[in-house]
Amino acid sequence: MGFSASDVTLGTTGIIVPKNGFGALPIQRIGQDQAAVLLKKAYQHGIRFFDTARFYSDSEAKIGYALHDVRGDIFLASKTMTMHADEFWTQLHTSLSDLRTDYLDLYQFHNPAVCPKPGDGTGLYEAMLEAKAKGLIRHIGITNHRLPVALEAVESGLYETLQFPFSYLASPKEIELVNLCREKNMGFIAMKALSGGLLTNSAAAYAFLAQFDHVLPIWGIQRESELDEFLSYIDHPPVLDTKLTAIIEKDRQELGGEFCRGCGYCLPCPAGIDIPTAARMSLMIRRAPASALLSDEWKMKMRRVEDCIHCNHCAEHCPYSLNTPELLQKNWEDYQHFL
């Protein structure tokens, strides 16, 4: 399948792909052969950008298994969470080995608490430059959930791409960030375009992002039905008409403000609480069939909120500065009304 008219150019990288990227975090939850079916189908129907990370357990290995024979036709992006230069090389070589490739098209610092820069004492950015000089990576990017760090990265001029959460629930400041990337000719990769599963209308999500022709959405895909939806949008993109606009406005009213995005950086929880789900339960149970969330399994998981030891690990690691323990308690109290 050829590229459509809605191709995206990622800043100065020269990477030009259809406005559909494959977010490979979810395939760590399924078997290798099942993941291979999804990845091969995605490629066969025009998806050319595949985003993964060393942190996503066996996601890289599954991509390498499924797509190594078409390596020259696709763009591979991965990430490292390390804060140590020596570990940087170990992780990079592991990623290359698992992906069955000699180079990465894009290598990204994975949600660092501060923006790596030359001379900052970590040696991380210098390692990126060395890896690029050796031909192991072709472009340098950064991902983040923290607006100040993202803004610093864009203004620094050190990075070719930024990956940041972006959906139609975005705040005005987040939209300003997206527009700033356009001004700086910096590639923008939109993660969490469905806001961690809270947004259920993919057509509305796609149509909103289509307004930003420099933005590449990467969709977290785990099921073939999900893949089919996004594949259909390559040749027949949804139009932001009155119906989809009404859906967007309704969701903004219901979900606007402070809420858990489900990014998972609060984990692991010492008390075994499934924080990304428990902290969003009030929203989820009103937007999905309640019966699925009132199973014995979910009752047990939600009761674990009572075991919170108030260590504050979750709040300290939340990129959005949420009072997570308080949010968990409110969601648990609300959940009990449904029992």
Distance between the termini: 50 Å
The count of strands amounts to: 10
- The CATH superfamily of the largest domain appears as NADP-dependent oxidoreductase domain
The CATH class designation of the largest domain is Alpha Beta
Computed Rg: 20 Å
Low-confidence stretches: 1-5
Instruction: Give the quaternary arrangement of the chains.
Output: single chain
Could you say which overall geometry the principal axes of the C-alpha atoms support?
A: globular
Describe the fold and architecture.
This protein has 15 helices and 10 strands. The chain is α/β, with parallel strands linked by helices and 339 residues long. The strands form 2 sheets. The chain has an 8-stranded parallel β-barrel, surrounded by 4 helices. Strands 1-2 form a two-stranded antiparallel ribbon. Helix 1 crosses helix 2, helix 2 runs parallel beside helix 3 and helix 5 runs parallel beside helix 6. The longest helix has 15 residues. The N terminus is likely disordered.
